[in-house]
Task: structure prediction
Amino acid sequence: ESEAEAGVRARSAGKRGVGSDAIHSVRAALGGLGERVRRVRLPTIPALPALPTVPALLGALPSEPAGARPFWRLHDARRLVCNRNGVVGSTCRAGHEALWHAEGEVVNLATGAEIAKIEGVEFTRMLRPWHRETLEEAPATGDSVLRASLLSRKLLVFKSSEDDSFMSEFRIRPKAKAQAVDAMMIPYQRLDFEIAPMPLAEREAAGQSNAYKLSVDVQFNERDTIRTVRHDLPASAQFGRSRQLRHFARFVEPARGSRGADASSWERYDFVRTENLELMSIWTRVGACPSWYGRGRCAYTLRSAVVPRADIARLPSALVEHLKKFHSMYLRSVSGEEELAQLQVGKMRLPVEYDTLSTGKKGPTSGGSRAIFKLG
Result:
């Protein structure tokens, strides 16, 4: 072996030795670091306090006295009915007429899509203002209730969400069969309100002497008869300091002959005063979609404002022209008892929208009726 070859081999061995030493040193340093890390003692996390159970939480909430249930204050109940007649206060006068103009929309709850807009009118007339009557079943004791009667006539039309045109038909798909779209019409409703004191035991349980219940008998035509339905209005309504009604909600049971839960709905009414001290009503309904749209659940929202002096000239001109052409009766209110009697004899259509079978027959037996704001 030459001296040159021996020198190369020695230098190569020297380089490998230096590299091995460096790697060994790095490994030793990392090992020491790991040992030091393992020796670090992390602070102990204190144990979280035990969360209360649901029954315990419910038990901590304030509860009503035993036997108590929501009630109406007398002035609030009176004010609700006067609001319904377009009057801000709690004093209504006989013959007072109000015209409401309503706008809103219908939304498919499954998709969030707006399927149609709504526009309409309603006339209300105070047939008989608040007055006291002695109960027939208790003439000896002189127990009495407050009563008031209101007449209503209303119509709502569906409008296209795209161009605001009045809808006469609807297709779920471009080539699908067209479904007729009719206005929702109520030629008349008679609403007889009654305010009666809560039973003494319930007033004592609530600790309130000013505790009342409010009910309404809704009268309307139903095919060959005149039907009256009583609703006990839940006392969920509360008036604020400005004496405006915040809300009033109720669950509506399915109509007779309906498809069970599909025809049930939840409604909420809000009466508010605008900055100009004008009265506005907001109606929200969650229930079945319009029959022309098909099955499903929809949300209806309707915002109604009182038209000054019940003047139809202040309504949108397009709506007035449409009503003059197709529904002229809805441009005026029910004039009184005489016209009411004529409507009842005529047995005009009832305030229920019906599905239609392929046979063309209509009615509760045809697959389900869908009640539309009977209280309204």
Summary: Residues 3-39 form the longest helix (37 residues). Residues 51-68, 349-376 have pLDDT under 50 and may be disordered.
